[in-house]
Amino acid sequence: MQIDPKVIECIKSGLKSTAESDAHSYWSARVEKGRGQAASPYYEAMKIKDMEVLFCYEQFDELTLLHLREFNKKKLISLETDIVVDHYKEENFDANKPEQLSQQHAEDLMAWMRNCLGQKVTPRLDSHPSMITVLEMGAVRHFLRTQQLSHSVEERAQVLQPTLEINAGHDLIKKLYVLKDSNPDLAQMLLEQIFDNAMITAGLNDDPRPMISRLNDLLTKAMEKH
């Protein structure tokens, strides 16, 4: 694949302050223009590394970086891939945050979520309620686009085997913990919506139409006391 020299200059400019000692350069796709870091749960999950990140806004930006793989003798790694393979960020629970669920409550909730979704669930985030991780997610997105698969979200999840990362301190997640016992039906709808939202944010589900009925049910439930 031949890369336009203008694209090379853009990459060079975007990564100009990457430290010489760094073995990798990081990039992130599916970022909304004007929002940058705040719009990306994937950036949040690895910001502790304090690394420079090249943000991509167009579909073909991601495809270019997937093919390029290396630049200035540094491996180009997406934030999503780094999160999956980073052995220093295993499923550790930070018990020093008083605003979040206790470790026992978080573990109970994640066990319930795993049982409902049939997917792996781990704690990791600080601001966003949830995100999806899949190994080599950029390549997976490209595969889904080129194959134009019409699988349902459930079928895609079964094929992709995604992990749902949650924020045990987010209001949605804390409310979900309460609802799973007090109102199981509503909790199930909320969990499915959280999962679908994360799949859409990850670019693994571009058709939100199947969840419109559930959204209407959730809105109806939300208005029952008003």
TrEMBL record:
Keywords from the UniProt entry: Chaperone, Stress response
Gene3D superfamilies per the UniProt record, alphabetical: 3.40.50.11260, Heat shock protein 90, C-terminal domain
Example of a GO MF term: ATP hydrolysis activity
Keyword Ligase part of the UniProt annotation: no
Coiled-coil annotated spans: none
InterPro entries hit by this protein: HSP90_C (IPR037196), Hsp90_fam (IPR001404), Ribosomal_Su5_D2-typ_SF (IPR020568)
SUPFAM superfamilies, A to Z: HSP90 C-terminal domain, Ribosomal protein S5 domain 2-like
Family, as annotated: Belongs to the heat shock protein 90 family.
PANTHER family per the UniProt record, alphabetical: HEAT SHOCK PROTEIN 90 FAMILY MEMBER
The name this protein goes by in its record: Heat shock protein 75 kDa, mitochondrial
The organism of origin for this protein: Bagarius yarrelli (Goonch)
